[in-house]
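PROTEIN DESIGN WORKSHEET
SECTION A - STRUCTURE
LENGTH: 277
TOKENS:
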């Protein structure tokens, strides 16, 4: 099968952008795979990764020998890191808008005028609402109606709501208008799914798998080019680990992985974080 994969790799190599990074090759090959997803899904995840490595080997050395060594030593790992930054979540009180409807005016922005009880008018102060003057004629002030326009609401019968200032909404008291609130005890975690042939990463993962001992710092890991970052996802959890350190959650020469709809590779199960709580 590897001879067939080498032939496929040789044909695909000219189609990729010129770079030496194995992770760049992985990302660029995914772009091609999206347009031929049925073909690559038929090849399978394992063979897809091998093609990435063979293309890298071909570009790095002009042959597949390096690729064969990398594949012979290939292992998979799920890693975790965190900056221990507290998780924020959408405010449920305002549904993430930062505002809540004004209950005082039923979010209309206006309330009934308390001076005229929403009538828009009040008793004429010249005829006390009789509509007649002292001579028995129509009151000149109200034209005999007995009512004049309410000065407080200009005859509209409504006035601006004092609670929301006619805005219809007011700042959410739960999140203070920020639309998000902190989730106490939960921190943002960064989950990495990698394929690696690096002896240091592999040895560390084998020793520290499913422990609270870090395998290395994030900085040291990022300086290492001997892995393919297959996927990266962010979640939140209640855990108790150091910031900016990497922890091995799972390590094996085989892992239950598959293509996502966008052709990136992901683990089929969420890693067990129980030992980090």
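SECTION B - SEQUENCE
RESIDUE ASSIGNMENT:
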């Amino acid at each position: 099968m590897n001879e067939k994969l080498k032939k496929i790799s040789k044909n695909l190599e000219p189609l990729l952008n010129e770079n030496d990074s194995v992770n760049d090759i992985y990302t660029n090959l995914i772009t091609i795979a999206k347009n031929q997803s049925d073909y690559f899904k038929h090849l399978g995840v394992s063979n897809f990764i091998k093609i990435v490595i063979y293309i890298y080997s071909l570009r790095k050395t002009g042959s597949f020998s390096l690729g064969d060594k990398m594949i012979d030593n290939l292992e998979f790992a799920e890693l975790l890191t965190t900056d221990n930054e507290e998780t924020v979540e959408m405010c449920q009180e305002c549904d993430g808008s930062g505002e809540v409807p004004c209950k005082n005016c039923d979010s209309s922005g206006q309330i009934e005028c308390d001076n005229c009880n929403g009538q828009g008018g009040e008793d004429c102060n010249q005829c006390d609402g009789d509509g007649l003057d002292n001579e028995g004629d129509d009151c000149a002030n109200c034209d005999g109606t007995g009512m004049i326009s309410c000065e407080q609401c200009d005859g509209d019968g409504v006035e601006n709501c004092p609670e929301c200032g006619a805005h219809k909404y007011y700042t959410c008291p739960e999140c203070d208008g920020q639309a998000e609130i902190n989730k106490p005890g939960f921190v943002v975690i960064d989950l990495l799914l990698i394929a690696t042939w690096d002896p240091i990463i592999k040895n560390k993962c084998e020793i520290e798998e499913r422990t609270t001992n870090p395998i290395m710092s994030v900085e040291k890991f990022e300086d290492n080019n001997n892995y393919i970052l297959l996927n990266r996802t962010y979640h939140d959890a209640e855990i108790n680990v150091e910031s900016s350190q990497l922890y091995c959650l799972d390590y094996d020469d085989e892992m239950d992985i598959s293509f996502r709809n966008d052709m990136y590779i992901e683990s089929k199960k969420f890693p067990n974080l129980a030992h980090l709580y």
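SECTION C - NOTES
Residues 45-61 form the longest helix (17 residues).
The CA atoms of residues 129 and 146 lie 4 Å apart.
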